[in-house]
Amino acid sequence: MILWQYLTLLLSITVQICKAQRCEEFTDLDLSHSIIGTNLKIKLLLYTRDNVTCGTLVSHTNLSTHPQLNLSRPTTFVIHGYRPTGSPPAWVHELTELLLAREDINVIVVDWNHGAANANYFKAVESTHKAADNLTAFIKIMQEHGASLSSIYMIGVSLGAHISGFVGANLNGSIGRITALDPAGPQFTGTPPEDRLDSTDAQFVDVLHTDIDFLGFREPLGHIDFYANGGTDQPGCPKTIFSGGSYFKCDHQRSVLLYFDSVNRKCTSEAFPCSSYKEFLDGNCLNCDRFGAAGCPVFGYGVTEWRDVLLRLGQTKTYFTTNTVSPFCRTNYRVEVMIWNKDVRWGYITVKLHGNDKEAVATIDHKASEFKKYTEVKLLAQFDKDLQSVKKVSIKFSTGNVCKTKYKFRVLRIRLTHLERKERPLCRYDVLLEDNKEVTFRPLLCEESNF
C-alpha cells in the first residue's frame, strides 16, 4: 500500500514537471492554410532568461497565472509581418535569444500567424488593426498589474511595424519605444498617420528601410529613419527574378539580419544625416556636429543613446552602407585627393588598407569623379572592415575606358581620415598612378602645415 502511494505521488510530480516544462511553439501553418485563408488568432509566447528557448503561452486576461512574467522588468514585444506561406518566421528564435543575452527583460513574441497567413494580402492588412486592439487590451492589463508603459518596447517587422504603431496610438504614444524593421509599403503608402506607423506612436520611434522600391515604405516614419544602402537593392541579394522567391523577399528580410548585428554587438553601423543617398555617396554629408559629442547615430538597438537630441531635432533621415553578409557594418573614411595633372581627369578610385595580415577594401565607383589641378576632391570611402593599425595603403585609379589611351594620374596629396575614430589622418605626397595599376606605399601622419 505504501509503495502504491509512493508511485502515485511520483507519477503526479512527474506529470506536474512535464506540464511545467511544456514549451509552446509558434504556430506552424502551410500553403493550404494560406490559400483557404485564416482568421485572426493571437498567441503570446513569453521568453525570459529562465526560459530562453522554451516559450510560455501567456493568458490574455489572467496574468496571475504567470509568475515568470516579472513586470518590474522591461518588456519587449516582437511582432512579425505577412506570412504568405504560413511558415513561422525563421528569425524569431534567434532574435529572442539575442535580446535576452543583451538585457534581462521579458520578451513576448506575438504570434498572429492565424491572420497573417493568407494568400490575400489585403485580408492580412485588415487583421492588423484587430491584432493591435488585442495587444492594447493586454498591455492595459499589464499596466493594471504594475507595468510602466515607458518600459515597453515593440519591435515590428513589415506589417508588424504598423501593428506596433496602432498599439502605440491606442495608448496615446505613451509606450517607450518602437523599432520598425522595413515597415510594409503596400496599402500604407499615401495613407494618413492614423492609418500607419508614425513618430507620435511612441516616446521614441526608429525605423529601418531596406526595400522601399517594392515591399517597404519609402518615406520617413520615425524620429530617425535609417536607409541601408539607400533603402533598396541590398548587397548579396539576387538581382534577377530567376533566383526564385529570394528575389522578392531578400531586400525586405535583410532588415532583420541588420538588426541582429546591432543587438549582439557584432559591429556598429554609423549613419550619416543626408537629404539623399546620392548626396551621401558623393561625400557631401559627413558632418555630424548636430549630434554633439556623441557623433553620428548608430543604427539599431543602441540608438537610444541619441534619443534626446533626436527628439529635439524632430525628424532625421540617415544613410549607411553594408557588406553582403554579417558582420554587415562598414568603416568610413573621408578620402581627399589633389592632383597636379594639367588636364582634367575623370575616373574611379579603389583604396586598400593593409595591416596585421588583414586587408580592407573600398571601391568608390558609384560615379566617375572629376579631378582638376590643385583642386581638392573629397570622397567617401566605405571599407568592408576596420583595421586598428594601417601599415600600408594601395591605390588604384581607373578611367573605365578599356580601349582608350592609358592616362597617368599624378597625385600631389592623398589624405585618409577615419570618420569614426578621433585620430590623425594618414597622408601620402607625390604619387604617380597609371590607369588600372595598383600602387602601394607606407602612409605618413598628416602635417597640417604642409598645405
Overall description:
By secondary structure, the chain is α/β, with parallel strands linked by helices. It folds into 2 domains: 299 residues, Alpha/Beta hydrolase fold, catalytic domain (Rossmann fold); 120 residues, Lipoxygenase-1, CATH 2.60.60.20. It has 9 helices and 19 strands. Strands 2-1-4-3-5-6-7-8-10-9 form a 10-stranded mixed β-sheet, sandwiched between helices. Helix 5 crosses helix 6. The protein is elongated, with a radius of gyration of 26 Å. The N terminus is likely disordered.
Largest sheet features? 10 strands, mixed
CATH class of the largest domain reads Alpha Beta
Mean model confidence by pLDDT: 92
| Domains (count) | 2
- By helix and strand content, what is the structural category? alpha/beta
Sequence stretches where pLDDT stays below 50 over 5 or more residues: 3-19
> CATH-wise, what's the superfamily of the largest domain?
Alpha/Beta hydrolase fold, catalytic domain
Number of strands: 19
Helix fraction?
Answer: 10-25%
What structural keywords apply?
single chain, 451 residues, alpha/beta, Rossmann fold, Lipoxygenase-1, 2 domains, 10-stranded mixed beta sheet, 5-stranded antiparallel beta sheet, 9 helices, 19 strands, elongated, disordered N terminus
